[in-house]
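4.2 Preliminary Data

To establish feasibility before requesting continued support, the project team ran the inverse folding procedure on a target of 299 residues. The structure was first converted into the token representation described in Section 3, and no sequence information of any kind was made available to the design step. The complete token record follows.
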């Protein structure tokens, strides 16, 4: 059975300022999302589920339906603020949906195979899709999930600080914990991050999560319970979010699932800041010149 790709594309990107999921970075108007889809198809994924806002639907369908026809099954689902279980209600004044865990939950009726979940505006590299597809086809089960781990130095931006989840694993590369590090930046002295007002050094060889997850459909049952627990505790707050890494961490701590960290030496890049776009274009151009992608993806 071919795995499914769940593509999280409902966010607007406040730091970027616009719909960066469709921003053009390839030589023929391709967005990062095009390269993600191309990599997923050649790795053996059989279906893509776009998680979008309803007001993005026409733009996404006009852009992807024709080019993906006959290559991969396509379905669209909408992440909506009102999609919460009874008897919970939406706090007056709240406008944003409930985070990445809520976004993946939106796909509960569209996914029936092991699946990967990724950010639409991140370039993960072809190797990452291949190792994930192999895991989903051969190892994933109701209690065994995965994530692709990246070398920290392959994930940084020269245009501002970033936050990364530092992966702490056991001897079998199963995830024990994710330590969220904030304000990671490249300085003359090396790579540093801030904690409690102090700067601490990093080697760059640390393994970090870039939110490339691999799940069995059993996750949706866990998400439903986890989302209810979240709403009971934080559902009346204006900006609370149900994040998928935090939920996965709860599953690990409660011994309901193990998560294998699939190592990748791929170069990650994305458009966290508008200033990142020229670097992304340069990276794509380099990969095309190296023969890793055709100049025209869909022709």
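Position-by-position output of the design step:
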């Amino acid at each position: 059975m071919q795995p499914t790709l769940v593509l999280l594309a409902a966010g607007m990107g406040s730091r970027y300022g616009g719909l960066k999921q469709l921003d053009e970075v390839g030589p023929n108007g391709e967005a990062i999302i095009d390269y993600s889809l191309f990599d997923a198809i050649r790795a053996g994924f059989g279906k893509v589920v776009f998680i979008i806002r309803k007001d993005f639907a026409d733009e996404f369908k006009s852009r992807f339906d024709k080019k993906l026809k006959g290559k991969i099954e396509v379905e669209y689902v909408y992440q909506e603020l009102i999609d919460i279980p009874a008897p919970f209600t939406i706090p007056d004044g709240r406008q944003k949906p409930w985070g990445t865990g809520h976004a993946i939950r939106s796909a509960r009726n569209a996914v029936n195979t092991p699946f990967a979940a990724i950010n639409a505006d991140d370039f993960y590299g072809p190797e990452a899709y291949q190792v994930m597809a192999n895991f989903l086809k051969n190892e994933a089960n109701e209690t065994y999930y995965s994530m692709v781990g990246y070398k920290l130095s392959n994930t940084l931006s020269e245009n501002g600080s970033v936050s990364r989840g530092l992966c702490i694993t056991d001897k079998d590369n199963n995830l024990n914990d994710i330590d969220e590090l904030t304000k990671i930046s490249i300085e003359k002295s090396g790579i540093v991050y801030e904690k409690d007002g102090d700067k601490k050094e990093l080697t760059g060889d640390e393994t970090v999560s870039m939110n490339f997850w691999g799940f069995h459909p059993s996750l949706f049952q866990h998400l439903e319970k986890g989302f209810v627990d979240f709403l009971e505790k934080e559902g009346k707050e204006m900006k609370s979010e149900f994040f998928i890494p935090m939920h996965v961490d709860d599953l690990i701590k409660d011994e309901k699932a193990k998560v294998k960290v699939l190592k990748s030496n791929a170069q990650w890049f994305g458009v966290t800041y508008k200033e990142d776009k020229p670097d992304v274009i340069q990276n794509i151009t380099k990969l095309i010149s190296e023969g890793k992608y055709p100049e025209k993806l869909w022709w």
